[in-house]
């Protein structure tokens, strides 16, 4: 059993360093994709609530279709469609074709998928802001953007937070799907390590442990964040 | 867009569809059979049992399904041949197929997520109803069968329906361990015809239809459930 654990050493011939690099890439992609998803979600929710009929219909189509198709299929579709679109644009500008790097492609596809889910989370949270608050803000002469920044967002965030923390956990786990497409992150590094050493069981257990650690730390962090955002609100017992 | 390959591969897509539905049905069946005791253990079980159930849910929900699937198929699968005498046993033919591993992995996943849902469901049933049942002289098991479980399931049915749709959308992962369900057939077509978009779009369309059929089916089932009159 000694030799099996030697395989986890940080420097080659051990695979520990590769796994940690993979974990770092996973976290980079997850953070980037989550941020992109939040931006899309905020804009999407505002569009769904205040936009015209065409925008609303388009957003409804986006969230329904994205949420009805498996992530794996979407990741492939968005990846190919994205690279092709980018190259068409680049060729029309007289530039050479290029491949998107794994990191940016991962952020873009996962972010676009997460955007559909966070649109729904934000929409629900926006709707739970009492209307009187917004009216009061407007009556004070605040401009629409100031109302959004100082009234709607702070009131809405505690309602959105449980959904958002759930989405973050889903995002970190979704990055594993990128292994199927061939982006090197934790799941793919693990598969390569396991395949090269034939220690399948151990390496997948270690990878599972790493993902679990990310989840547990995140849950703790979101718990603290929620307590801070809810300060000043009556405690729920 | 070229669709000349569609008639040729249509029978294989049908086989893939059947495999997807089997995988979904079996995982929901076995998963829910595990989820109910797991939820119950967390609400009323003695602490070692409750603690184990809780840890199981945390681990399953905290790791990607893909890793669980690979751990069970490649990890456990690579350990089984070392068990002496297993090659001569009855279950060896099963252990050489990929499909049973997929069913086990997906069932455990369903058990983990739905065990957590069932925990909330059992807790949401008003105490008074359980006390009334006990006062009528029902045995604990009868209370569970007649009152507690039906009321709990009724409360969370919409949540469960949403979770089952998520399970459907996870089934393509089985293709990574050579179970050729709808997505797997789609990737075969992509390899053999060198078309990128058409097979993917076709697969996406199938899942879109499956999702909508399931959503409507669940809604019909929900409507048939006895409603609580205020």
Automatic annotation (TrEMBL), chain A:
Residues 23-222 form the ABC transmembrane type-1 domain. The chain crosses the membrane at residues 27-47, 59-82, 102-126, 147-170, 201-225. Keywords: Cell inner membrane, Cell membrane, Membrane, Transmembrane, Transmembrane helix, Transport. It is a multi-pass membrane protein. Its main location: membrane. GO terms for cellular component: ATP-binding cassette (ABC) transporter complex. Signal peptide: none annotated. One of its GO terms (molecular function) is transmembrane transporter activity. SUPFAM superfamilies: MetI-like. It is found in: Cell inner membrane; Cell membrane. InterPro entries: AA_ABC_transptr_permease_3TM, ABC_transp_permease_HisMQ, MetI-like, MetI-like_sf. Belongs to the binding-protein-dependent transport system permease family. HisMQ subfamily. This is ABC transporter permease. It comes from Tritonibacter scottomollicae.
Automatic annotation (TrEMBL), chain B:
GO terms for molecular function: transmembrane transporter activity. Keywords: Amino-acid transport, Cell membrane, Membrane, Transmembrane, Transmembrane helix, Transport. GO terms for cellular component: ATP-binding cassette (ABC) transporter complex. It is a multi-pass membrane protein. The chain crosses the membrane at residues 20-44, 65-86, 156-180, 200-221. It holds the Pfam family BPD_transp_1. InterPro entries: AA_ABC_transptr_permease_3TM, ArtM/GltK/GlnP/TcyL/YhdX-like, MetI-like, MetI-like_sf. SUPFAM superfamilies: MetI-like. It is found in: Cell inner membrane; Cell membrane. One of its GO terms (biological process) is amino acid transport. Residues 17-218 form the ABC transmembrane type-1 domain. Belongs to the binding-protein-dependent transport system permease family. HisMQ subfamily. Part of the binding-protein-dependent transport system for glutamine; probably responsible for the translocation of the substrate across the membrane. This is ABC transporter permease subunit. The lineage of its organism: Bacteria, Pseudomonadati, Pseudomonadota, Alphaproteobacteria, Rhodobacterales.
